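Dear U.,

For the methods section draft, I wanted the exact inputs and outputs in one place so we can describe them consistently. I've listed the two proteins in the order they'll appear in the manuscript figures. Please don't edit the token lines directly; just add comments below if something needs changing.

First protein:
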Amino acid sequence: MYNAGVKSLVLFCTSLSLLSAQEIRLGIVGTDTSHVIAFTRLLNDPTSPDYVPGAKVVAAFKGGSRDISSSWDRVDGYAEELKTKWKVDLMPDIGALCRRVDAVLLESNDGRVHLEQAKQIIAAGKPLFIDKPMASTLDDAREIARLAKAAGVPWFSSSSLRWSPIVTSLKFDDMVGALTWGPGPTEKTQYLDLSWYGIHAVEMLYALMGIGCEEVSRTTTDGADVVVGRWKDGRVGMVRTGRPRSDYGAVVFRAGEVAQSRPKTPHSYRQLLVEVVKFFQTGEPPFPNEETLELFAFMDAAQRSKEAGGAPVKLR
């Protein structure tokens, strides 16, 4: 058992060394989001001013969810653009895709299908980036993490907003609280309604606050959600999502000072992809997986608070 374990570790480290020394072949699972085109452009086009070297999208599996129009109506169009414009090979299933690539971008728009798709990617031993949301429920997110850990497969999941100037310009060691906001449209098929789009604002909050939330309460109206979290050390973090749309922004509270993000602060996918490529080269996620799992526990508690009429709910 010991020798087998050492051999497995040596093989894994060797594969990481090989990946870091050559251009990584990437596969996309799920062509029903605009992210697949934006990401492929930045990774595959050396003439782009935002080009990210080190990895190239070479294969894709279409996927798609028939009961979500924003998924099913777009999956074929994006797949065709990948094939014709970017010369990406379309594969008949996830198994065939995994045999063609070194690592996987799990991009499916519908978080409900992520667990089943991730199972196949993990079984193939491929490192994976899971685009937001990691899953549609806390239990599914935890199961993906459990399976990946058991198989020794590295993963991480994130919104690109984590690396936006909104967040990076407001990180202070003496922060006592934060408020983030963003769009909050929902999708009836998703149990955690914040996971559909509100997750961007939640991700921003966690990028600023870190882990340690104990209790959440939520107020919901037709036009907005306000979620208040209490951290173990006494800090308070808040998320506001607006409907039908909202800009992104944040306020950080410090001792004797309040700092706010600039209006209309721009952001791009480039820094996220820089982190993704670095992750595939090293096997080390840019922040702890535990933070992503607590972020889902935060949204799970917010959902239960909503169902309880706004009563405070402990994270589970």
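Second protein (the one for the lower panel):
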Amino acid sequence: MAQPRSPVTRLSFDASDRPEAQEARALLAARYGDVPHDEAEVIVALGGDGFMLETLHASLACGKPIYGMNRGSVGFLMNEYEADNLLERINAAERAVIHPLSMIAIDERGATHSALAINEVSLLRQTRQTAKLRISIDDKVRMAELFCDGVMVATPAGSTAYNLSAHGPIIPIDGKVLALTPISAFRPRRWRGALLSQDARVCIEVLEAEKRSVSAVADNFEVRDVVEVRITEDRTRQLTMMFDAGRSLEERMLAEQFSA
């Protein structure tokens, strides 16, 4: 049986550059104290979903749980902002553990680039020319040619972001699968993507790269003129997000599937 956690008392506040986020940071830091990351038990992120993504990337090194409050525009990954009873909310919060994707991209010069993605790894055409891609899963070619604007591999946490906008599936946070989703597939036109095991090794090769140039993007890290991209889930790394009781990430993702 898991031992009960000691109450959280030490917080570190990070805020986006939006005025409302900076104002909230000053107010909360004065009320609850603000310690450095390495002394904090929880990092409180104040902003929108984009800032939450930045904070999660920054926390990969320290491994501290992140509790977000919405002081931005899009706040699917954030809790509602309220200055009162913050410690009580954090101590009652539910935790969601996520794992990032590892991207290894090889460009046309033969250079290798590595990055981690919390939401998705996307391949996108760079010019007016349609991208032409070959997709292999676990060293077996599953699609010899895909003509498209691009394709992505999304984590469960990222399945409600770019993946959903591209008509990919919403994945339960504990679903143990990844979404492989095309972006404006032209041929085969009716291909809607696939669900892959979390252990799948995805390799995407760029065909005719000299005239159909493609970039690879791991969240906000971009590599131009790639010829091959390998994607796996990195189970050796984990990130913890905290959500108010009754408003867990799992509940939000389920509710999103029934929204109008």
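Candidate sentences for the figure legend, describing the second protein: The two ends are 40 Å apart (CA to CA). DSSP finds five helices and 17 strands in the chain.

Thanks,
Y.
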